[in-house]
């Protein structure tokens, strides 16, 4: 298969060439969604994880009995570690308890990777939302 032609990096003022579909060189690859740059300089509260989020997280964890809901749907009881947006905020999801569920780290990682893959396939932000497929 022929190699993709080298293009200048999409980051302003960068002169590096890349063959990556997202258009960023290795140094600027993390900026492909703009999300990392947007969040870099913000505190936890500014990113939406202040006292309101901590209270909401506690409510969801208690509602879900501190168990991973993806594992529970598969008949397993696994302790939850994070509260995740079923439809992520970048895709229009909200902080409503109906859009939040407790997940273990493994299921959260798998869901995040699926969302990123769907985003790459769409050429978008990496988000996609929704429950873990097969869960």
From TrEMBL:
Nuclease found in the keyword field:
yes
Q: Which domain of life is it from?
A: Bacteria
Q: Residue span of the signal peptide, if any? A: none
Q: Where is this region: Disordered?
A: 112-135
One Pfam family per UniProt: HNH
Q: Where is the HNH nuclease domain?
A: 55-109
Provide this UniProt record's keywords sorted from A to Z.
Endonuclease, Hydrolase, Nuclease
Q: Does the keyword Nuclease apply?
A: yes
Q: Which residues form a coiled coil?
A: none
Q: Which GO terms describe its cellular component?
A: cytosol
GO MF: endonuclease activity; hydrolase activity; nucleic acid binding; zinc ion binding
Comp. bias regions, Gly residues: 124-135
Recorded family membership: Belongs to the HNH nuclease family.
PANTHER family recorded for this chain? Answer: HNH NUCLEASE YAJD-RELATED (PTHR41286)
What is this protein's record name? Answer: Putative HNH nuclease YajD
Organism field: Halomonas nitroreducens
């Amino acid at each position: 298969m022929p190699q993709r032609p080298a293009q200048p990096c999409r980051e302003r003022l960068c002169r590096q060439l890349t063959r990556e579909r997202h258009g960023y060189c290795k140094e600027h690859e993390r900026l492909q969604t703009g999300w990392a740059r947007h969040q870099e300089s913000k505190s936890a509260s500014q990113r939406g994880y202040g006292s309101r989020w901590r209270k909401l997280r506690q409510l969801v964890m208690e509602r879900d009995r501190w168990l991973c809901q993806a594992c529970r749907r598969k008949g397993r009881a696994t302790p939850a570690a994070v509260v995740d947006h079923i439809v992520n905020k970048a895709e229009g999801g909200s902080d409503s308890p109906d859009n939040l569920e407790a997940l273990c780290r493994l299921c959260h990682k798998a869901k995040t990777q699926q969302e990123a893959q769907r985003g790459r396939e769409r050429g978008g932000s990496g988000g996609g939302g929704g429950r873990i497929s097969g869960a």
